[in-house]
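Data availability (excerpt). The following record was deposited with the supplementary files.
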Amino acid sequence: MTFHPHPRLVLEEDCDLKLLSTIDERIKLLEKEGVDHLIIIPFNKEFSRMSSMEFVREILVKQIGTQKLVIGYDHHFGKNREGNFKKLQELGKLFDFKLKKISQHDISDIAVSSTKIRKAIENG
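Predicted structure:
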C-alpha cells in the first residue's frame, strides 16, 4: 500500500519535497521486487483527518481484509500521526490481524530513511 500524492505535498504549504521516485517509477520498482498487489490510496486533506482507528477499521479491515500487516519501525499514521506500532498491536488484537515490524536498518551507524537519502543526494 502506498499513498499518492506524498502526504507532505498535501499537508505542508509551499512544500519543496524532492521525491526519490515518481508514482510510475515506484510501481515499476515494486513490480520488479515481486509485489503481486499494490493499493494506491489517494491522499488528500479529507483523508488526512481520518483517525488511526478509523483508518484501520475502514480501510485495512473492511475494504482490504488485512490479515497480516508489515510496517517500518518508525511508522506513524492517522490524524496528526497518532497511530504507531503499539496502537497497531492493540488494533490487531481487536480486529484479528497479525503485525510485523521491520527493524531499523543502519549504514555506518546512520538509520536509513528517505529523508536522509534525499539530503545525501542534495549534498552530492
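Summary of structural features: The chain has one domain: 2-122.
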